[in-house]
Fold this sequence. Notes:
Blueprint lengths: L5 H12 L8 E3 L12 E3 L8 H10 L1 H8 L4 E3 L13 E5 L11 H17 L2 E4 L2 H11 L6 E3 L23
Parallel strand pairs: 1-2, 3-4, 4-5, 5-6
Amino acid sequence: VDEPGGAVDVAIQYANRLPKYVANLTLFAHHSVCSDFPQYTVEGTGMLSETLPYGILWEQMVVPTLGFRRGIDVLFCPNALCPLRDTEFPVVVAIQDIPEYHGFGSKKYIWFREQLLPRIVNRADRIVTVSEFMKRDISNHLDVPLTDIDVVYNGINDIYLDKSSEGQAVSLPE
Length: 174
């Protein structure tokens, strides 16, 4: 896909902005993303395929060991997925939304997410989401205490903060 959408786009935004605030970051991903994220050490040992099913399996089986070997402090998972097994480090999961609990998506997608998401939220040490509404929605549908969910509002693109572009048209995708 030329232009990712949804949670993938938000994950890319996180990846591009985190180095401004945190030093010594490792991006666990296929090595093909190295040129897209030169500010990171990319750890892709064992990531032999870029397919989604292989990536999920790799995240479950390999990432916990790679994180341990690298001595990471925290594993931040921006796409509502995370390793389900115990790790030596805390795991923070970002959940943008839960459309499957509102009937959005194919039957296969809804079934997959309804099986996996309760395990993800039970495994995560912290959950972050984008609004108070989503915090309550996650708590209600996934039986997570409100105290285990933090709201971290999405920021805005720097173009909207640049006074020199004030009054100029903004190019938006169709």
